[in-house]
Amino acid sequence: MRRIFVLVAVFSLVVTFALAFFLNPNWYVIFAILLALTILGFYDMAQTKHSIMRIYPVFGRLRFLMEELRPKIYQYFIESDIDGRPINRIDRSTVYQRAKMENDTMPFGTQLDVYSEGYEWLCHSMAPKDFKSLDHNPRVMVGNKDCKKPYSLSIYNISAMSYGSLSQNAVEAMNAGAKIGGFAHNTGEGGLSPYHLKHGGDIIWQIGTGYFGCRDADGNFDPQLFSEKAQLDQVKMVEIKMSQGAKPGHGGILPASKNTPEIAAIRHVEPHTLVASPPYHKAFSTPREMILFVQKLRELSGGKPVGFKLCIGYKSEFIAICKAMMDLNIYPDFITVDGAEGGTGAAPQEFSNYVGAPLLDGLDFVHNILNGLNIRKNIKLIASGKITSGFHIIRAMALGADACYSARAMMMAVGCIQALLCNTNKCPVGVATQDPKLTVGLVVEDKKTRVANFHRKTVESVVELLGASGLDKKENITRSHIYRRISFQHMLTYQEIFPTYPTGSFINEIPDRYKNDFRYASPDHWGYTNIGSWSESNQAV
């Protein structure tokens, strides 16, 4: 579009000037108008703050005009998912405001319907804590008894998004922002690229079923390649991707249009072909083998924290993993719980909408099982799935999370406008595309600061919320601090909706709601059809 604009502008100026000079002086008026638009267009291409104006000079300004007018039909398409489910416009606006360091307060009170089903709120105290006296940079130490290099993780970090699905500039901006703000950047399953390492931000290297960046010619896991990269100082943790909320049970997808020779070299695949990861891992085939693989990666990385990411499906399978942990006395350093509401650049519609447990249900279940078996102390929990605000972080912590990931909010911080073209290689702001004519719009130096700003302001909002609740640290937040409206006349706390269990209580007696899941959970088999090795007499160990 930039090249077309230059050609059209120059041609128009030459023609109108010639017409004015040789035929009629009145053409000078048209020439002056076109000259002004040309100057405006060159200014748009030179400025660094607005990606869409850099890519679409002059015409890109129409978007901002439409934002000012905001007719109802525009609001519907921009503020809804592709299937019509609502996106919280308030949270989205807050991301932009915090990233740009604009005023993120709002007039006239809440813009949500506080009497509608599903409305949630946090209890406040008559004796709130002074924000200045609280820890403004809360962190969590990840690493258990087998970890030699524990990592101090921010409570809010960049979720898994691969180079390939995101552009080079987007990856660079996110990692540079993570460096400024002191938080971590998850690579996604697409491999460890030079752009993840260029700016020195802390890295969580995700290993998916395709083993991109650490695979041999046949697509199998390569221990030597993994060890070489995992021991880089910038790589702080390693995450095994079992499944993701956007398409659990389905492998990752990179369209052929995005699979450039450079990306293919990073992933060790053929360029210009559709890259579809297998839906399952080849390196292990049972829960027990999976936990041994965790230990293997920990050793190959030099003792760094290793964990896994999953969206909860069959509850018996997660319980089977826990049984394997206890049998082997080997524990992952962290578990990432992803929710079915999580997003992706490319996923089958049915998988995106109808497969996998939502984050709140999955997080509640995972925490309860780990706590009931008295192994939660060995494992940190990271929550992922539409976490875009301080309240979302507080809510996840109430259900057991130690820290959180965010993908869509970080994309918005680097300029994403939710054009819903991620899978077409035509992202109009250069975030989710490999087309150099589009990626030029995203300026790393500008957007890295926005990422750092958004992270800092959101973490500060978490601290302020804790203080308003009368709490001095995140570990004190409980499920009883959050209410949810069930109907116009009824509201319940999260403790009532998601009841907790005493630590270690499952060792002596398994609650009725989990009995069948324990019965069908075996550390030596996946699936719900395999009768577990633990007896039906409620004896957990």
CATH superfamily of the largest domain: Aldolase class I
Sheet-strand content, in percent, reads 5-15%
Based on the coordinates given, report the CATH architecture of the largest domain.
Answer: Alpha-Beta Barrel
- Helix content class: 25-40%
Q: Kindly, what is the distance between the CA atoms of the first and last residues, rounded to a whole number of angstroms? A: 65 Å
Number of individual domains: 2
Given helix and strand content, the structural type is alpha/beta
Write down the overall geometry: globular
Task: Please identify the top-level CATH class of the largest domain.
Answer: Alpha Beta
- The number of distinct helices, counting runs of at least 4 residues, comes to 20
CATH topology of the largest domain: TIM Barrel
Number of strands: 15
Order of strands across the widest beta sheet? 4-13-12-11-10-7-6-5
Largest sheet: 8 strands, parallel
Structure commentary:
The protein is built from 20 helices and 15 strands. The radius of gyration is 25 Å and the shape is globular. Helix 6 (89-99) crosses helix 18 (444-468) and helix 15 (390-398) packs across helix 18. The protein is 39% helix and 11% strand. The strands form 4 sheets. An 8-stranded parallel beta sheet has the order 4-13-12-11-10-7-6-5. Strands 1-14-15 form a 3-stranded antiparallel beta sheet. The model is unreliable at 71-87 and 532-541 (pLDDT under 50). It is of the alpha/beta class and 541 residues long. The protein folds into 2 domains: 2-78, no CATH class; 135-479, Aldolase class I (TIM Barrel), CATH 3.20.20. The chain has helices at residues 2-22, 27-46, 51-55, 61-69, 72-78, 89-99, 168-181, 194-197, 223-230, 261-267, 287-300, 315-328, 349-354, 359-372, 390-398, 408-413, 436-439, 444-468, 494-497, 512-519; strands at 120-122, 139-142, 151-154, 156-158, 184-186, 202-207, 235-241, 253-254, 275-276, 306-311, 334-338, 380-384, 403-406, 482-485, 491-493. The longest helix is centred in the last third of the chain and has 25 residues, at 444-468.
